[in-house]
Write a structure and sequence with these properties.
509 residues; mainly alpha; Fumarase C, Chain B, domain 1; Fumarase C, Chain A, domain 2; Ribonucleotide Reductase Protein R1, domain 1; two-stranded antiparallel ribbon; two-stranded parallel sheet; 23 helices
Length: 509
């Protein structure tokens, strides 16, 4: 029997297209009210609790409490979860096989309508769960009303968001690896280019451009590892926890977990319905990935400036000015740097929501989804567009080499040369510091200073000192593990290629 979560995989491209079309409706209440049609409703929200209440829910409360304007996008996960719920109810003999088949058929039809953009979402039904359940009951009759047996919306939304987080995390990992591959390919194309390495945005020591690219490959590798590790805690099945204390009707939770592709089930019903750690962890991993993209953005913004001129971005990944016709702006990098603040804000928003909540479920937790959706959408698009931009980026090797020609980049190499001749490092540091001051005062570069002048600073100097005063020698001498010698960099580029080739790929939407 094929797991339901694989059997009913949905068309994310189409769903995301629909989502983008409706995005403005999520931002402004007036647009939401226009989007939803109020002429007829098959079910009022208050019918979920009509036995207790004597008045209809206020329309203002409905507008204030609705989540369907954004949680509709959980529909494929809600449907597959409900199909597994129906199977569990059938196994427990709460519903018949005929009823289960009707539920499955009805849910598949509803999914097809949503996929096609033909399903009518009703704000009065509040959320994705009740919209689908109402449509199902209207479609198949009493069997639909049995589906919610031994289930609460509390464990239902916990299930839906875990399924969503699992699917999206896997996609993000693929996109991270896609950007890593673009960076590796950029390094391979510019493997021999020597550039200045910077500290404090001041030229420090010579490195290979490919080594700089590989630094971001390493950062993104940690991002992928964090996301992969987060999947272990995401992929735990909460359904069956009920509102907070399970149910007297015991369903086979391990069977449901197997049908939905979960590794395990939760073991405390109160924790299961109030846990949003997995969302917070995912938002943290996304925010840190955004930090890395923002740092890369800053490098690129500097490099494309006239002051640096290290790289040129393609016309397809830059924009112009409405006034200044000569401008070519690195908007992708600037937007990514800016959007990283949103990723931070979404994480802080969720943590702030959670920090004061008593056990178990509280309505505050409805506020977990918009930050989650926004961060997922933002990082996926950022990773995809960045990979595309890096592929089209041209490295201006001559300009980079000219910047690396600054002779002061070799000051540390001169100090190391003295150390290898037996001079204590602190003494060598002082000697080269004085030599640097002399070079600046006289306008004479290190390679042009006569040997006699070198000896005036230290009698240890001899003619072999001039052998270290070339960029090629400087980078070749940096052979320690992790250092930027050509041999090391070539080895790292080679090592990354099969690792990334074996990884699944996802293209941005």
């Amino acid at each position: 029997m094929q797991p339901l979560w694989q059997e009913h995989a949905f068309d994310r491209v189409r769903a995301d297209r629909i989502y983008r079309w409706r995005l403005r409706a999520q931002r402004f209440l007036d647009d939401v009210l226009l989007f939803f049609r109020f002429s007829t409703f098959s079910l009022h929200l208050s019918t979920m609790w009509k036995g207790r209440f004597q008045q209809e829910t206020s329309s203002l409360v409905q507008r204030y409490g609705e989540s369907i304007s954004y949680d509709w996008r959980l529909y494929p996960h809600d449907i597959v979860g409900s199909m597994a719920q129906a199977e569990a109810l059938c196994r427990a003999k709460i519903i018949t096989k005929t009823e289960m088949t009707a539920i499955h058929k009805g849910l598949k039809e509803i999914k097809a309508e949503i996929d096609a953009g033909k399903f009518e979402w009703k704000m009065e039904l509040e959320d994705v769960h009740m919209n689908i359940e109402s449509a199902l009951t209207k479609r198949i009759g009493p069997a639909g009303a049995k589906l919610h047996t031994a289930r609460s919306r509390n464990d239902q939304i916990a299930l839906d968001t875990r399924l969503y987080c699992r699917a999206e995390t896997q996609e993000i990992i693929g996109l991270v690896k896609g950007l890593q591959e673009a960076l590796v390919q950029c390094g391979l194309k510019n493997q021999s280019v020597i550039m200045p390495g910077y500290t404090h945005l001041q030229r420090g020591q010579p490195v290979l451009f490919a080594h700089h690219m590989l630094a971001y490959v390493e950062m993104l590798g940690r991002d992928a590892a964090r996301l992969t590790d987060a999947l272990k805690r995401i992929n735990i099945m909460p359904l069956g926890s009920g509102a907070l204390a399970g149910s007297t009707i015991c369903l086979d939770r391990e069977f449901v977990a197997q049908r939905l592709g979960f590794d395990a089930v939760t073991h405390n019903s109160m924790d299961a319905v109030s846990d949003r750690d997995y969302i917070a962890e995912l938002l943290f991993a996304i925010a840190l990935c955004g930090t890395h993209l923002s740092r890369l953005s800053e490098d690129i913004i500097l490099w494309v400036s006239a002051e640096f001129g290290f790289v040129t971005l393609s016309d397809a990944h830059t924009t112009g000015s409405s006034l200044m016709p000569q401008k070519k702006n690195p908007d992708v990098a600037e937007l990514t740097r800016g959007k990283t603040g949103r990723l931070f804000g979404n994480l802080i928003s969720l943590l702030t929501t959670l920090k004061g909540l008593p056990l178990t479920y509280n309505r505050d937790m409805q506020e977990d989804k918009e930050p989650l959706f926004d961060s997922v959408d933002t990082i996926k698009l950022a990773l995809a567009v960045f990979a595309e931009m890096i592929v089209g980026m041209k490295v201006n090797a001559d300009r980079v080499r000219a910047a690396a020609g600054d002779p002061f980049l070799l000051a540390t190499d001169l100090a190391d040369w003295l150390v290898l001749k037996g001079v204590p490092f602190r003494h060598a540091h002082e000697i080269i510091g004085k030599l640097t001051a002399h070079s600046l005062a006289t306008g004479t570069a290190f390679p042009d200073i006569p040997l006699e002048q070198y000896k005036a600073f230290s009698p240890v100097f001899d003619a072999s000192v001039f052998k270290v005063l070339t960029l090629e020698q400087a980078v070749a001498a940096r052979k320690a593990i992790g250092a930027p010698s050509p041999a090391n960099v070539a080895r790292e580029l080679t090592a990354w290629q099969p690792r990334l080739a074996a990884a699944p790929r996802r293209k941005g939407k």
